[in-house]
């Protein structure tokens, strides 16, 4: 759910009222120290001052509630920008681990709900990087915390508490994993309207948790904005292979379905983990130069969908949200049996237990040494059961024709912690269970 902060006033509006012209990001610096307290005085509830680019004031004020039974950033509609960051944890006791979780929760609450940056003696480093100005706008930011299997395996005081299906990501046949882009004790998924909001949040956490967290790897992603269609429906965004991505995702507004597909539960999982979710992350390079030379018919057969609308190949005039009828096409004359969507979800009674909620971003990281574009998909999927979800589906996809055009190079498996109620901290159920054991 997205909440609109009322009466947001942009820094531009405020400077206009003060009779000052706006010269991009240099204005705050140009105002000098005397002007900043004046800005802070205006920045009372209902008068938020934000360094918002023109036209961004309303979206800057969007905020996603932090507290609740599940973490934000999983069912939350995916905004335009994402960062996935993986860390190693350096703590020497359960008490320190708890301290780390409390501090991480405190920073996450502040960054996602927004507010004024506290002023400090100028002889000291400022409390904030200043990237977003004197008032932090929520900008739809969510920060989702996950834990990796290595953490549970390293610390005695967490022994026996690992979520049952949490494991180190194994190598699949088409993988060429770069160890510098894999695994980690702790994951943070940042999602926001603007990339600057994610970068600001990441830097805040790095600065405030430097004694506990060492960064291992990170990758930035984005999705293109998609205008609503003429019939009012919202088309899925396109990935870097030019296809709509997300059409067959289970409905995140269907709470009963999400309880089955996304949220971990059941007697075979430790109780502290109920309400969390397994997070499967894969950095999958796309060979875009090769793809752009492949015939359209080959591209469409590889996915099992039409490129322009995303409709299934057995109903090309339908919409991307229409469901393919594989029973009526047993020999795969319309939708090839080895097409991506048919392998990923054969839509049999048995495959209903292999569903997952995908929340990917596209990434673009410049040029490889061989002169090819380094572009691909930052694949992120959430599921109640990692083995029945991502691992089973990836095993079915092994050897698919799409492999000629993609190469998984990194990623990891993490467990996104359950949500918490107001005043509590993320991971408190795990810490309590560790104290009891
Ligand atoms: C193991 C899980 C999956 C990986 C890895 C994966 C990689 C991957 N996918 C695309 C593009 C598309 N995927 C689409 C559908 C789709 N993909 C998966 C799973 C994985 N994809 C599932 C479960 C599904 C849904 C199948 C269904 O229920 O019909 C589609 C079609 C549109 C859509 O539903 O999203 C596209 C396009 C790429 C480019 C990629 C790796 C680079
Ligand atoms: Fe896919």
TrEMBL record:
A Gene Ontology BP annotation from the UniProt entry: iron import into cell
Cofactor note: Binds 1 heme b (iron(II)-protoporphyrin IX) group non-covalently per subunit.
Record domain Dyp-type peroxidase N-terminal: where: 71-222
GO cellular component: cell envelope; cytosol
Domain Dyp-type peroxidase C-terminal residue range list: 237-420
Disordered: region residues: 307-341
EC number(s) given by UniProt: 1.11.1.-
Any one Gene Ontology molecular-function term assigned to this protein's record: peroxidase activity
Cofactors: heme b
Classification via Pfam families: Dyp_perox_C, Dyp_perox_N
InterPro entries per the UniProt record, alphabetical: Dimeric_a/b-barrel (IPR011008), Dyp_perox_C (IPR048328), Dyp_perox_N (IPR048327), Dyp_peroxidase (IPR006314), EfeB/EfeN (IPR006313), TAT_signal (IPR006311)
Predominant location category: other
Ranges of biased composition (kind: Basic and acidic residues): 331-341
Binding site for protoporphyrin IX: 246-248, 305
Keywords recorded for this protein, A-Z: Heme, Iron, Lyase, Metal-binding, Oxidoreductase, Peroxidase, Signal
Catalyzed chemical reaction(s): heme b + 2 H(+) = protoporphyrin IX + Fe(2+)
Cellular compartments annotated: Cell envelope
UniProt-listed PROSITE patterns: DYP_PEROXIDASE, TAT
Residue positions binding heme b: 246-248, 340, 345-347, 358
Source taxon at top rank: Bacteria
Role, per record: Involved in the recovery of exogenous heme iron. Extracts iron from heme while preserving the protoporphyrin ring intact.
Family: Belongs to the DyP-type peroxidase family. EfeB subfamily.
Name of protein: Deferrochelatase
Organism whose genome encodes this protein: Paracoccus kondratievae
Organismal lineage: Bacteria, Pseudomonadati, Pseudomonadota, Alphaproteobacteria, Rhodobacterales
């Amino acid at each position: 759910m997205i909440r609109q902060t009322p009466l947001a006033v942009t820094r531009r509006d405020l400077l206009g009222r003060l009779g000052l012209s706006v010269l991009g990001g240099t204005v705050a610096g140009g105002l000098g120290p005397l002007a900043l307290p004046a800005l802070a005085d205006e920045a009372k509830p209902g008068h938020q001052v934000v360094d918002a680019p023109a036209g961004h004031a309303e979206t800057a004020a969007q905020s996603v509630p932090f507290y609740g039974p599940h973490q934000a950033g999983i069912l939350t509609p995916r905004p335009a920008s994402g960062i996935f960051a993986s860390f190693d944890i350096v703590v020497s006791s359960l008490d320190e681990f708890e301290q780390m979780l409390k501090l991480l929760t405190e920073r996450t609450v502040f960054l996602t709900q927004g507010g004024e940056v506290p002023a400090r003696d100028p002889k000291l480093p400022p409390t904030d990087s200043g990237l977003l100005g004197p008032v932090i706008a929520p900008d739809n930011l969510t920060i989702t915390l996950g834990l990796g299997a290595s953490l549970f395996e390293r610390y005695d005081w967490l022994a026996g508490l690992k979520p049952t299906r949490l494991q180190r990501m194994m190598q699949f046949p088409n993988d060429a994993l770069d160890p510098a882009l894999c695994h980690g004790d702790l994951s943070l998924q940042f999602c926001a309207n603007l990339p600057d909001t994610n970068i600001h949040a990441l830097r805040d956490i790095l600065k405030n948790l430097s004694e506990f967290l060492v960064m291992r790897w990170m990758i930035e992603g984005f999705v293109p904005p998609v205008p609503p269609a003429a019939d009012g429906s919202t088309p899925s965004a396109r990935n870097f292979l030019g296809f709509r991505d997300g059409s067959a995702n289970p409905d995140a507004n269907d709470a009963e379905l999400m309880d089955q597909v996304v949220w971990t539960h059941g007697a075979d999982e430790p109780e502290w983990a109920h309400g969390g979710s397994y997070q499967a992350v894969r950095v999958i390079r796309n060979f875009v130069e090769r793809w752009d030379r492949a015939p359209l018919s080959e591209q469409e057969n590889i996915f099992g969908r039409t490129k322009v609308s995303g409709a299934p190949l057995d109903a090309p005039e339908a919409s991307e949200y229409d469901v393919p009828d594989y029973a009526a096409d047993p020999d795969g004359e319309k939708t090839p049996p080895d097409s991506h969507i048919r392998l990923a979800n054969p839509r049999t009674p048995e495959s209903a237990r292999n569903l997952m909620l995908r929340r990917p971003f596209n990434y673009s990281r410049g040029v490889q040494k061989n002169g090819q574009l380094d572009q691909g998909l930052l694949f992120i999927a959430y599921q109640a059961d990692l083995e029945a979800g991502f691992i089973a589906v990836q095993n079915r996809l092994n050897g698919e024709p799409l492999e000629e055009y993609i190469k998984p190079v990194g990623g990891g498996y993490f467990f996104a912690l359950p949500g918490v109620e107001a005043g509590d901290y993320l991971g408190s159920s795990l810490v309590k269970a560790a104290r009891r054991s």
